[in-house]
Model the fold of this input.
Amino acid sequence: MLKDFFQKKRKYATITSDKAKRDIPEGLMTKCPKCGAILVTKELEKNLKVCTGCDYHFRLSARERARFTLDEGRLFEYDAGMITLDPLSFPGYREKLEANVKKTGENEAVLTGEGTIGGHPVVFGAIGFDFFSGTLGSVVGEKIANAAEKALQKRYPLVLFSASGGARMQEGILSLMQMAKTSAVLKRLDDEGILYISVITDPTYGGVSASFAMLGDYVLAEPGAAFGFAGRIVIEQTIRQKLPDDFQTAEFNLKHGQIDRVVHRKEMRAVLTRILDVHAAGRGTAHGR
Amino acid sequence: MAGEMPFEQPLAELRAKIDELTRFSRERGIDFSEEIARLEERYARLEEEIYGNLTAPQKMQIARLAGRPTTLDYIQRIFTDFLELHGDRLFGDDLAIVGGIARLEGIPVTVVGHQKGKDTKENILRNFGMPHPEGFRKALRLMRQADKFGRPIVTFIDTPGAYPGNAAEERGQSEAIARNLLEMASFRVPIVCVVIGEGGSGGALALGVGNRVLMLENAIYSVISPNGAASILWKDASLADRAAETMRITAKDMLELGVVEEIIPEPKGGAHKDPAWQAERVKEAVLRHLRELMALSGDQLRKQRFDKFRQIGEFGFLDIEG
Done:
C-alpha cells in the first residue's frame, strides 16, 4: 500500500531524459509539490517527509503519521475491521470507496489505537487525507468516538491528528451528525479531566474543523497547514475578493488566536512529550485529578 | 395564494380560469355554477396531486421561500413575555441569531433561533440568517444561562449555513460551532429543537443538539446545500435538484434516518399559507415534548441526549476482527 502511494507521487516527478528514467527504479525520487525540488525518497522519509529544500510538510497517510509519532512507530490498532456501508444508496459511493481502499490499502480514512509517546501511554488517532479526502463519514465518526471512549475508560490522554476535506457528502445527514457524536463524547473527557491534544494538519476543513479538531485542550498545527470552516474558493466567491496567500494557514490561525502553537513535524514528538510530561507530573497531586 | 413557485403554476392557471368564469357569470347573469363546481373539484384534485407528492427540490423551494414564517414569527405567536437579549460579550451582536427569555404556556424557557429577513433590507441586516462566530457564541451564552437557572431550551433552526467569510474565519467559525456541539451535549435541562425552514449544515447543527429534534413537513436538513453538493460531486451546480433527491434532505428522510423524532404537518402548500395554524401545530408539539422531558432528571436528560447522538451512523465489520 505504501508502495502505491509512492508510485502515485512518481507520476509527477520530472526526470529529464529517457536514459535517466530507465536508470531510476520506481519510487526512488519524489518531487516537492511546493518548490519543485527532486528529492531522494529514502532521504525524504528519513526527514519525516519534510522537504529539505523548502520545509514543505508532505501530507501523510494515517499509518505514516502513526509511525512518525508513536514510540518505535508502534500502534495497537482499534476497530481495524470496521467498514463503511452505503446507507443512502448514493450513486457511485461503493465504487469510489473501493477505489480508495485499493489505492491506500486501508478500510477507512481514520486509524485509531493506542501506543506510547515519550513513554506515556496514549490513545492515538490520525486521519489520512489520501483516503476519500479524509472526509467524515459514519465510520470515521464512530472510530473517533470509540477511541475517545477508550481514553476515558483507560484514563489515557487522547491525541488526534486531523486532515479532512469536511463532510462525506455521500452519507448525507449521517455525516453531519458525526460532528455532534464526536463532540458529545469529547465533552465526557472534558468532564473527567482527560487530556485531549488535537493536531491539525494540511488540510482540515468543514465538519472536522468545526468539531473535534477545534476542541482540544491543546490545539497544535503543522507549519503551512490550511484549515478553516469554509474553503478559500467558497469564501472568495462569497465576498468577491481575492484572499491573501497566507489566508487560513496555521500561521494565520495562530495570529488570530485560534490555535496554541505551530509545531514543526520534527519537533512534534518533543512537544507532545513535553505536554504529556507536564500532565503526568500534575496527576495525583492536589491540583491534578 | 398559489403561484409563488414554478410547480404551482398549473394551480394558479386553474384558479385564474375559475375566477374569470365567476366574474363572467356575475357580469352577464349567466349561471355557470355547475361548471364552476366541476373546476373547483378539479382544483382540489390537482392541489392534492401537487402538494401531496412534493419532491425534495420542491420542498427545498418552499423551505427557502421569503414569505415563510421565521423564528421571530413563531416566538411572537407561541410565547409570551419574550425579552430579547443581545451580544456574545466577546465581539458583537449577530442579528442572524435571535434569543432571549420567554414563557411557553407559563413555563419559563430560553428560546434561540436563526433569523432570516423578510425582505432584502432586513436580509442584509440579518445576513440572510447566516451567523458569524459571535452569533453562535451569543446562542451558547444564552443556553448556558438557561442551564444555570434550570430553564428548558427551545431552538428554531432556519439557516442556509454558517457564513463563509474571511472575518468569520478570523474569529473562529469552526471553534464557535464545535463549542456549541460540545456544550449542548452537557446541559441538564430539556432541549427541544425545531427545524422550521432550512437546516443548513454545521451552522444548523450548532443549535441542533437537542433531546428532541422536530421538523416541519417541508423543512430540509442537509450536510451541504444541494447546490454545493452538485458542484463538488458533478462539477455542475445546475444539478442541485438531483443532489437534493440523492442526498435525502426531507423531514421524512430525517425521521427514517433517526435524526428527528417527529414531523410537524404543514398546511397544503406550506407554512406560509397559514402562519397562525402553523404556529399552533408547532406550539402543541413543542409543549408536548417539553412536558415529557421535564419529568426527567438533569442526568437523565443529559444521558438521553448523549445516547441519541452517540448511536447515529451506519457501519459494518469485516469477518476478521483486528
